[in-house]
Structures are given as C-alpha cells and as structure tokens.
C-alpha cells in the first residue's frame, strides 16, 4: 500500500459524485495532453455516471460467461484506488509494483488497495455509498512512503505512455474470453533508485525493450484485473476504445 508522509499537511482532493450527463473530457491526441485540473476531474466524474447495476453489493463483474461458486465461503470485500496526479505538469495514473514476498500476484503491477481487513472501522454496516470519487493530487513523489512488506516500487504511468501504441498489446479478460483489452507494458517506467525521487526521466530499462520469440514485448505489464480496470477507466474517460479482435482468447 502507498501512504502519504504525515508532515505534508496536504490531502487528496475528493470530488463527490453528482448525477449529470456523462461527458468525455480528453480526446486530444498525444502530444499535448493537458494536466489534470479540478474541472477535468469533474467531467471525468460525470463520465463514470450512472453507476452500472453490477456495482451493487452481491453482484458480479459484467460479461461473465462462467459460473462462480464460493461454496460455504462468503465473498471478500475489496477495493482499489486509481490515483490521478500531475508530475511536473504531466498527467499520470499512479500504480505500484507488489513486493516479491506477497502471497498472491507477487511482483506484478497493480493499483493500491486490497481486501478489507477484519475489524476495519468501515467494514460493518451501513456500507459506504456506491459512488465514484475521483482523487486529484499534485504532491512530489518523494512524499510517498511505500510499505516495504507490500510494495517494491511505485509506478507512475503518464497518460502519454498509456496511449502509446508501442506499449499496448492485445489481451483477453480471463473471466470472459470475448472481452478484449490492452495490456500496457511498463517495465521501463519504474523510477531508478539512482535517480532523485521526483526524477521521472531516468528509468530502469532500455530504449529497445526485450522481445520474446513471438515478437511480443517482455517485462512488467499492467494486465489482469488491474489492466481491465485501467482500460475501463480509459474508455469511460474517452482516452481510447477497447480493441475489437476476433480469434481464440489468450489466458
């Protein structure tokens, strides 16, 4: 998990949802993507409304073509935060790389979040309202304090990188083989330990990414449920459209 330094005296700006007509706010092709502003996020918030019925408690994600059986187990409550921030005036989505010792999805790129811990103050009724909140911040990366037991590195992903066709690779959501989306390759976007905490220009990696025998790029990627969430946000925001590609699904 990521946390802010206690001494900063700042907090994330939360914009509560309001029922207005959805709009798309970012349709300008790169380069020239403007930084996030409260006005941009207000429009982004509108694009997330109305909430689909599958957001209601006890429902499943859309498009499932397989049955889900939990047996005697109860569903686990979990959530993620998709932080939006400006770094040197450039809009970014902030992710993290999970620590190598994590029990599941070790070393993978993900959003901060996870399951609700037992005894958490907000885990008992009444539940939180099912509303989208957009979080905006412009503080330096040096004020982020990753938990070493859970996070090996922060991962700032600029919108320009997200929209770069060289980083996009066709994939299929494993819970529905008909749902295509883009994996996003981010292996060269982890800030170098030798660079300053706010130096987003120096990266680990090379200008020519390693590729496998199939020609596909190798390395760290945003995929799986995190990739699906990122794609769905990008579609709702109008950043890009989900790919359409017939064929056998890849798992």
Automatic annotation (TrEMBL):
Needed co-factor(s): Mn(2+); Mg(2+)
Keywords from the UniProt entry: Hydrolase, Magnesium, Manganese, Metal-binding
Gene Ontology terms: biological process: coenzyme A catabolic process
Keyword Phosphoprotein among UniProt keywords: no
Superkingdom of this protein's organism: Eukaryota
Any GO molecular function: metal ion binding
Keyword Hydrolase: yes
PANTHER family per UniProt: NUDIX HYDROLASE, PEROXISOMAL COENZYME A DIPHOSPHATASE NUDT7
Descriptive protein name: Nudix hydrolase domain-containing protein
UniProt source species: Dioszegia hungarica
């Amino acid at each position: 998990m990521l946390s802010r330094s206690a001494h900063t005296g700042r907090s994330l700006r939360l914009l509560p949802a309001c029922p207005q007509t959805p709009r798309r706010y970012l349709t300008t092709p790169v380069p020239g993507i403007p930084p996030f502003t409260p006005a941009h996020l207000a429009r982004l918030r509108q694009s997330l409304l109305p909430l689909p019925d599958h957001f209601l408690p006890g429902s499943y994600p859309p498009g499932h073509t397989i049955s889900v059986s939990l047996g005697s187990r109860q569903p686990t409550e979990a959530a993620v935060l998709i932080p939006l921030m400006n770094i040197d005036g450039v809009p970014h989505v902030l992710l993290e790389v999970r620590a190598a010792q994590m029990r599941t999805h070790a070393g993978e790129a993900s959003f901060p979040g996870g399951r609700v811990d037992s005894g958490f103050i907000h885990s008992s009724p009444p539940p939180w309202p099912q509303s989208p909140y957009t979080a905006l911040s412009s503080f330096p990366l040096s004020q982020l304090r990753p938990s070493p037991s859970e996070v090996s590195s922060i991962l700032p992903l600029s919108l320009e990188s997200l929209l770069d066709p060289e980083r996009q690779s066709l994939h299929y959501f494993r819970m529905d083989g008909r749902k295509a989306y883009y994996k996003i390759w981010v292996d060269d976007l982890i800030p170098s330990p030798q660079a300053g905490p706010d130096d987003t220009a120096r990266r680990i990696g090379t200008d020519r990414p390693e590729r496998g025998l199939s020609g596909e790029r190798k390395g760290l990627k945003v995929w799986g449920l995190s990739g699906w969430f990122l794609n769905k946000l990008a579609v709702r925001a109008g950043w890009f459209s989900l790919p359409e590609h017939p064929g056998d699904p890849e798992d």
